Task: structure prediction
Amino acid sequence: MYPLIQQAIDTLGYFGLVLLMFAENLFPPIPSELIMPLAGYLSSQDRLSLFGILVASTIGSVLGALPFYALARWFGHERLTDFVERHGHWLALSWQDLERAERIFQRYGGWIVLFGRLVPGVRSLISLPAGLYAMPLGRFLVLTTLGSAGWSAFLAVAGYQLGENFRALQGIIGPLSQWLLALLVVLWILRIGRHYWSRHRRGG
Result:
């Protein structure tokens, strides 16, 4: 995974970063915790600007948050639940994830869209209840932008501050990310298999 992330940024620059952060929001197992520190390190090497990194990553995150928001707002609760039940496995998303995101949204209100962007595991899913409860698009965009910018800045600055020490960690991060990618693929395949087996047993 790490080499793929590095290749995307090396080849496409800021646009690659937009694409990576867009994908990270749609498919939660893609980790921004790998993407942004690497981008910050490249900034410390004067290969990218820190400001450009923050702008590109924030744009990618906001664009990635919009599909789930639009899907939830358009479908409504019943149809969205049915959609997640039938097709959510392709995005590593289950109705239990949807229910958890709803409970968080109901407990903390709209501000969780801002602070939820700082929490792994909640960051992508929080767009769903925001759409379900018809949060105004303008407010959703503002809160998502602020939260995404804060999270991206934290990770990018961490990579920037590591500087040359980040290069020493590459020898560890690279192999670990490969194993992580293999594990995620296996878990994804198992989740899809479990979904179809469950539907088969129910006669669906």
Remarks:
- Residues 164-202 form the longest helix (39 residues).
